[in-house]
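Final report, Chapter 2: Outcomes

The project's central promise was a pipeline that accepts a single protein chain and returns its three-dimensional structure in a standardized token representation, suitable for archiving and comparison. That pipeline is now operational. To close this chapter, we reproduce one record exactly as it appears in the project archive, with the input sequence first and the structure output second.
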Amino acid sequence: MEFDEVVRRRRMVRSYDPDRPLPPEIVDKIVRHGLRAPSAGFSQGWGFLVLTDQKDRDRYWSSTTENATSDWHGDWLTRMRNAPAIVVCLSNKSVYLDRYAQSDKGWTDRDEGHWPVPYWDIDTGFAALLMHLTAVDEGLGSCFFGIPVETQQDFKDAFGVPAEFTPIGTLTIGYRAADKRSPSLKRGHRPVDEVVHHGRWATAD
């Protein structure tokens, strides 16, 4: 597709065809495109857990939902479970703190206070978006969502995730099935003039 078309077609898809597995080479392409994301200091402080086997996907859903609040149950989740591929995106803050304590970066310690925002999470989010857009370009559906706070440790225990990694979100990927539009879309896009400011945010008094 042309890039403009990829952006126009981008949606959070929650319904997948359970009878159409993803070719391994497409999954590999999606993940490799994520690795092209920018990262501060080229730290690349991320990790990606790719789940395509049914038993691994079942373990993901059980570990992230069994002890979750009632908000994490329902029709949308039932439909999401059909996705043939799951990619959990994790950030590693310590990699960034170590990288910026090196001589070419000018900081002499690992003080997190140097950072105006958590770039380890932002950069991992960039990678997730590249994977999401690659899935769209391949004619697939994809959805990015978080793991409930109360089940994050359950997830990490289930998959042996090291303590220094934090799951910032999960991508489901697969061939689209008839989907239901999110009720949130009724809100519509905010007006451009309300969110885009040129020159300065507001007129000076």
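Archive annotation: The radius of gyration is 19 Å.
This record, like all others produced under the grant, will remain available to the consortium after the project formally closes.
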